[in-house]
Amino acid sequence: MALNVVSPDKEKLLQDRMQALGVREQDIEEQFVRSSGAGGQKVNKTSTCVVLHHRPTGLRVKCQRERSQSLNRFFARRILLDKIEAKLTGAKSAQEQEVARIRRQKRKRSRRAKLKLLAEKRHQSDKKLSRARVGAESYED
């Protein structure tokens, strides 16, 4: 069975990243709340969900990925640092890019695009109809 502990190397990398971004532990407000969803009685009895609030930026992160509070604390800090980094660099996160891509896919086609698509379909249909079956005359005798 795997231990629900974050390795010291990963903890060190997280601390280094926090220093590089200028995020201090004093600026982070941490709360523990009860998780929801799968997990049974264990989840309903213990407060494993971690909510972090970074006061200077006003960012809030909630993590209930694991059943272990210590793992959720680690993951929540990583997510918070990702968001802070995205805010500082002005770059869109991978998740935001994915949401934008899905929105573009679901967006309604313009009238012109619909007409062009239908014209291409009609052209393809006419092309297929003009093709004669090979040896079609011999079957009809």
Q: How does this model look, in words?
A:
With 141 residues, the chain is α+β, with helices and mostly antiparallel strands. The chain has 2 domains: 8-91, Double Stranded RNA Binding Domain (2-Layer Sandwich), CATH 3.30.160; 97-130. The protein contains 6 helices and 3 strands; from the N terminus they run αβαββαααα. It has helices at 8-21, 40-45, 69-89, 94-106, 111-130, 136-140; strands at residues 28-33, 49-54, 59-63. The protein has a 3-stranded antiparallel sheet with strand order 1-2-3, with helices on one face. A hairpin with a 4-residue loop joins strand 2 and strand 3 (59-63). The longest helix is centred in the middle third of the chain and has 21 residues, at 69-89. The chain is elongated and about 85 Å long. The model has no long low-confidence stretch (mean pLDDT 85).
Q: Which key phrases capture this entry?
A:
single chain; about 140 residues; alpha+beta; Double Stranded RNA Binding Domain; 2 domains; 3-stranded antiparallel β-sheet; 6 helices; 3 strands; about 10% strand; elongated
Kindly summarize this structure in a few lines.
With 141 residues, this protein is α+β, with helices and mostly antiparallel strands.
